[in-house]
Every structure is written in C-alpha cells, then in structure tokens.
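User: My instructor asked us to take a sequence, write out its structure as tokens, and then describe one feature of it. I'm not sure where to start. Here is the sequence I was given:
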Amino acid sequence: MEKSKLTALLRSVKSKELGWLSKWVRSPYYNSNPLIVELFDYMRKYAPAFDSPKLSKEVVSEHLFPGKPYDNQRLQLVMHRLSNLVEEFLVGQRLKRDRLLYQQLLQEELGERGPYDLFVKQNEKLGRQLEQRPYHDEHYYLAKWRQQHDHFFHPRSARYRFTADQLEAMMQNLDAFYVLSKMRYSTELRNRQNILPEAYEIALLEESIELAEQHPVFKTDRVFQTYRNILALMAQPEDESTYQQLENIAHRHLHILHPKDQSALLRYLINTSIQLYNKGKQEYLRRQFQLYQVGLDQALFLDEDRISATTFLNIIVTASVLKELDWIENFIAKYASKLPANQQVDAVSLGTAYWYFAGGEYTAANDLLRQVESSDLQYQLRVRSLSLRSFFELFLQDETYYELLTHEASAFRKFLRRNPKITEQRAAGYLYLAAFLRKLSRLSINRQLTPGKLSELQKSLEAEDAVVARQWLREKLLQLA
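Assistant: Let's start with the prediction itself. The structure tokens for your sequence are:
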C-alpha cells in the first residue's frame, strides 16, 4: 500500500489535522461504513511516513477481514472510499482557509437555489470583500468579473437596470485578468527561452501590452506596471532605467505586491543582473547579492520552509565572487537543513566547494567537487567549470598541474559541444572560459606571456559578449602581468 493513492493522500495530511480527519471519517453525514473507520484508525498508527511493513495489502486485509482469504477487490473498495473521504476533507480544509472561495461558492449556491434577495446580499458582500483584498492581481480581477457577471446574468436580474458603466467595468475586469495572465505567462516563456534551447512565438502579446497600458487602472496598478516592465527588461536587458524602476519596487515597495509577484520580480531582476554582470557591468553583482538578501529576509525563496538547491547554489556563487566568506558560512549553516533531503549532500558539497575556492583552498574545493554525484546539467556545468578554475589556480602555484589543467579543459569542451540541452549562447560562455585558460596556461608555461600577449588576451576578453567568470579572468590577467 506504500505507493497507493490512499497512502499518498494521508501523507499530505498534516499531523495536527489527523484528529480532525478522524472526526470527519466518523461523521455519519460523510460515512456510515465501520470498515472505513477501522482502516483509517489502523493506518493512522503509522503516520506520518506510512511506510511500515504492517501496511502491506495482505496484512491490512487480514486486519480488516480476519480469517478470510485475501481479496484485492474487496480491500480496494474500502481503500477507495477512504481515499474519497480524505479528498473531501482536504477540500473542506481549503474552504476553511480560503474565505473568499467559501463566499464565492455560497453565492453560486444561493443563485441556483432560488432565494434571490439572499443571493443579491451575498453578491454585494462578496464585492465588498474583494475590494478589501490587499493585492489586486489577476485572481482579484477574475473574481471581481465573476461577481459582476453572476449578478448581471442571474435569471431574475433586470438587466436593463444595469448602467453602461457597470457593463464597462465588468469588461474592464475581464480584460485586466486576461492581460495580466498573458504578461505573467509570457515572462515565464521568455525566461525559459533565455535558459533552454527553446523559442516561442507568443500570440497577441504586443496587443496585450498595449491593452494593459490603455487600461484605466494602469497608472496606479503596480502589478500591471511591474509585469509590463519585466517584459520590457527581458526584451532589452541593458535598459538600466527600466531595471532601476523595478529595483526600486523591490527595495521600497515590495509589500504592495502579492508574495508570488514579489518572488517573480526578484527572480527576473536577478536574472537580468546576471546578464549585465556577465557583460562586464561589475556593479550588478553587488546589486544581485542585495536582491538575494531581500528575498531571504522576506522568506521568498522558501516553499513550505524548503529552499531549492538551485537557489541555494546561486546565492552562494554570488556571495563567493564578492568574497563574503563569513556570510556564506552562516548561510550554509542556516539553510543546508532546508534543502530537499535527496539533494542536500550534493548541494552542500558544491556550495562549500565554492566557499573553499573563494577562500583560496583550491585542493579542498576539488576534493568536494569529486564528491558531487548529481548528473543534473546545472550541477555538471558548475562542477566542471569550478574544477577547471581550481586547477588553474593550482597551476599558478605549481606548474606540474599543467597536464591536469589541459585535460580538464579539453574534457569540458567536449562535454559542452556534445550536450544538446545547452543553448549555443550559454555553451559559448563556458567554451570561451576553457579555451582562454588553456591558452593562458600554455603561454605561461612556455614563458611566452609577454605584455603584448597579455594585452591581446585582455582585448579578446572584453570583446566577448558573454563570458563565464569574466571578472575572475580579469584578475588572473592582472596577476600575471
């Protein structure tokens, strides 16, 4: 039963909710079958993991039907009914938390059951509650449209009594829902396009942006403005005035956005700051770090008190370039336990390797990199590029590392060229890093690293649009000058 739907549902029930679920299962309104209560009570003893050998179908069947031969169909019927009860309980819990959803469903029921005066009062109450909501996002506009729509199209409503302004407001709310949703999905697609080898033609996007800018609430609605500016920034990442407007919201007005919009804004600003930094605008690294700190302070990078391995590592990489060594140590100590259990070892090993590298402990960094087992592309790119840089640092201290360094560079280049999941633009930045280090080390070991050669390398480095670890490469050239 460990992989059954019933077990998965019970695992989703929080420990503090099990008592309420017990009452739910025992309620004669929902259930009159004592076998279902018996099954729940038996399984509850093995919460929250529900992975005991005593939960095998054979053992459970013997408990429910002692002395009778195992009958899978009979057991499945009881499990199915308990599953339905758990699902109904979860919906009930949602209604307790989401009072707006409760009021919407109540309005629909009153509208269908006939007491028109009660329906109208509930409709008006719902309208007032919507106006009091702290965030006017696309969900607000959809709920507002539905509230107006249900009133207008109720069979007993006298439609001619509605004014043209009321109908116009209804359409404006529907338009607001559409254009906000369109812009939000478009930012996600554009973001994927910048990371993965994918391309999208987004129908009606320009028309949606134009409609957003013409909408009556546009001048005062921060969410409209934020997503319009995010799309503009994605189209022109070097437009620093747009970046500054969004950054100002992130630092001064973040509270006016819904948490999901706060997270989205920080994510897109951070992505843009990475692009700008990779193009040589060094000040954006510190700005990126400050955005990460805002997100951490507001717990925007946590989902049910868990931080993703990708975000965990991105933060460490940024802080390591800035040499925020004490900060990284405290960050790892605080957030390592919040990583997904199955990624914790690799993420901490790789993150600590970046910390060691930033502190000049290159052998220790490589020792940790060899312990990373993940085949995930993001891990592989980071492990291989950091290992290559560590070997170069060791080469600068001891030229006997030359062969290891050149081998690492060649292997990394082969990996990049043979992996179809890496976009051409993204691969180019890593390929340049590998080729640059191989050339720099060859010139150094052959005693050909003249001022003229260093100048050529410097010009080549600055001429490239996107280079991985550009600032570190600049520092190596200065070190060898």
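For the description part of your assignment, you could build on this observation: The first helix runs from residue 5 to 12. Try explaining in your own words what that tells you about the chain.
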